[in-house]
Design brief:
By secondary structure, the protein is of the alpha+beta class. It has helices spanning about 10-25, 35-45, 45-60, 90-95, 115-120, 165-175, 190-195; strands at about 65, 70-75, 80, 100-110, 125-135, 140-150, 180-190, 205-215, 220-230, 235. Bound molecules: 2-acetamido-2-deoxy-6-O-phosphono-alpha-D-glucopyranose. 2-acetamido-2-deoxy-6-O-phosphono-alpha-D-glucopyranose binds near residues 87 and 166.
Length: about 250
């Protein structure tokens, strides 16, 4: 129940109680939640206050609203650490999910100046550009556009990447061991094509990730641009404070 005698706004108290129901799995993923009217009667508060709590939970991705159907408990976001160099296949397998991929586009081109610079190759050295939708348990999780120097992929067969782990193929077929990477994460809005390919609700922000991956010799072999729907992912990092010198 809510406490009207403490200086914590009622909508916020309601929000905390609803989050607790989700965390304790009293309300499970996909369950419909009670209507605004039912919640306002149960907690003795106005429908406006209920709506404020629900709106925030929708914005935080804990609930989803389906037009004409109601409000449901959302799938928990995938929580991805930012300190290990892993592949999508490894990440999903570790979570007990089935990873897969389908190719949206694959082509051989000359790199733009910025891609040539990232990969430390000449602008006359061709690259393979591979665009894939990555799925976990058949749900699209990311759109990845990978740029790979062609010179590192002798005897390339473009179809070999269909549904497979790129890092797996690079390791077994080409002897390229992913060793280190530099990653930049930004927030953005998806294009109409990304909304479609990722089966997203319009106006949902995305995380745009750029990664340059290097082999053990420190040579870059991959430049990737990825789009991750903001309602499916969150990132975390463990931080250590510098110890003062002296
Ligand atoms: C991850 C990497 C991507 C890499 C892919 C290989 C990020 C942002 N991206 O998704 O750079 O190409 O894994 O995965 O983490 P795969 O071996 O399953 O194809």
């Amino acid at each position: 129940m809510l406490n009207k005698n403490i200086p914590v706004p009622l909508y916020f108290q309601l929000k905390q109680q609803l989050v607790e129901k989700i965390e304790k799995k009293e309300w499970k993923t996909g369950d419909p939640i009670p209507s605004e009217r039912e919640l306002s009667e149960k907690y003795g508060i106005s429908r406006m206050t209920v709506r404020q709590a629900l709106n925030e939970l929708v914005n935080e991705g804990k609930l989803i609203r389906e037009k004409g159907k109601g409000t449901f408990v959302a799938k928990p976001k995938i929580s991805q650490g930012l300190y290990r160099l892993t592949s999508f296949t490894e990440d999903m397998a570790k979570r007990g999910m089935t990873p897969s991929a389908y190719i949206v586009d694959v082509s051989v081109k000359l790199p733009s100046d910025s891609v040539a610079e990232e990969l430390k190759i000449k602008a006359t050295s061709p690259i393979l550009i591979l665009t894939r939708v990555r799925l976990a348990d058949n749900k699209p999780m990311a759109l990845e556009t990978t740029h790979l120097p062609l010179v590192r992929l002798p005897g390339l067969d473009k179809e070999q990447f269909e549904g497979k782990s790129l890092y797996g193929i690079l390791q077994t077929k080409y002897g390229i061991e992913p060793y280190a990477a530099t990653q930049i994460i930004e927030v953005g809005m998806p294009t109409a094509r990304e909304v479609h390919l990722l089966d997203m609700k319009p106006n949902t922000p995305v995380m745009l990730i750029e990664r340059v991956t290097r082999d053990i010799q420190g040579v870059p072999f991959e430049y990737v641009k990825s789009v991750y729907p903001g309602d499916r992912y969150k990132f975390y990092a463990d931080l250590l404070r510098d110890v003062p010198e002296g």
